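S.,

Sequence below, as promised.
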Amino acid sequence: MRDPSEIRVLIGCETSGEVRRAFLDRGFDAWSCDLLPSDDGSNRHIVCDIRDVLDDGWHFMAVMHPPCTRLCNSGVRWLHSPPRGRTLEEMWHELDEGAALFSDCWNADIPYIAVENPVMHRHAKERIRNYERPAQTVQPWWFGEAAFKATSLYLRNLPKLTETDRLERPKPGTDAHKRWSTIHRASPGKDRWKTRSKTFTGIADAMGDQWGTHLILNLGGPWNER
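The prediction came back faster than expected:
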C-alpha cells in the first residue's frame, strides 16, 4: 500500500487552494497551479500555464478546473449575441481557446485524472479532443453545502464521488432558495468569475477522502511504476 506522502497530486487552474489543502490535509504531496498567485499565499502553488507542467513528473493524479466561461451552457447565448463591446469573432475564438485548454487537461499523460466544469453546450463538446460524457454531475448540497452549482466531473480511472451529507433542498421562491442561488446571482464585477468558479469545501473534502483512498489502495510497486 502506497504512503500518501509519496503520491504527487496536481491541482490545476486553482487559486483558492481548496482542493490542494484537502489532499495536503490527508498527507498527499499536493501542489496547485494557475496563471495567478494563490489566494492563501502557499509555497505549494506554481504560477504558470497548467500545460507547462502537465509533463513534469506528475506520475499519479491531477484534478483540474480549466476556465469554463465560453464552454458552459449558461453562456452559450454570447456565441450568438455578444455582450456590449465584444464581437462574435472574439467569442468564438475564446471558445476555441477554452476547448483547447480543456482538451490538453483531459488528454494529459497522467493515469488518474479528474476535470471539473459546469454543464457544457454542444459547441464546446464538438471541439474537445476525445470528448466523453461526464461521469457525473454533482451539487454542493450533496456534501453539506447550502448552495446550488451543478458541477460535471470528467473522470479517468477514478470513482464517482459519493454524497456525504445531503441537505434538504429548499422550495423555489423561498428566502432559503435565494440564498442557495448566490453563485448564479453573483453581481457583475472583476471578481465575479472567482465567485462562480468556487470549489466548495464539502466537495473538496470528498475528493480528498474518496479519491485519495482510491489512490492509496490501487497504487503499488516502485515510485516509477505506472
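DSSP finds six helices and seven strands in the chain.

Coffee later?
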